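Example for tutorial group B:
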């Protein structure tokens, strides 16, 4: 079955960086466009970024544009999200999903606080 396992979250100070990973299995990752979404405390799911099956095109929410980079390794079936200059408003649980799907994993918690 399809599995998506997110990792890499943590507690970081404002201005810090994190690299999130999403290990995919159970489907042909290399032909699937993918996305990252997040859920801030008390809010609904927010789209963060997406990437085409071969690494492009990429798109970002205005809230993270210029600070985040989405990428993928189709040889390893892993999706990444490099997050720099983190802000408190980036706090939330981050999930990966197929572009047309919903999050299936547990997500990884990102907390930005001093």
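The residue assignment follows.
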């Amino acid at each position: 079955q399809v599995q998506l396992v997110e990792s890499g979250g943590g507690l970081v100070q404002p201005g810090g960086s994190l690299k999130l990973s999403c290990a995919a299995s159970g489907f042909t990752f290399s032909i699937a466009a993918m996305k990252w979404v997040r859920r801030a405390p008390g809010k609904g799911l927010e789209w963060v970024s997406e990437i085409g099956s071969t690494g492009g095109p990429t798109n970002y929410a205005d809230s993270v544009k210029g600070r985040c980079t989405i990428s993928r390794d189709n040889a390893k079936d892993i999706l990444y999200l490099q997050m720099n200059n983190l802000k408190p408003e980036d706090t939330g649980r981050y999930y990966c999903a197929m572009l047309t799907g919903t999050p299936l994993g547990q997500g990884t918690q990102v907390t930005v606080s001093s």
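The chain has no helices and ten strands. Compare this with the pattern of hydrophobic and polar residues in the output above.
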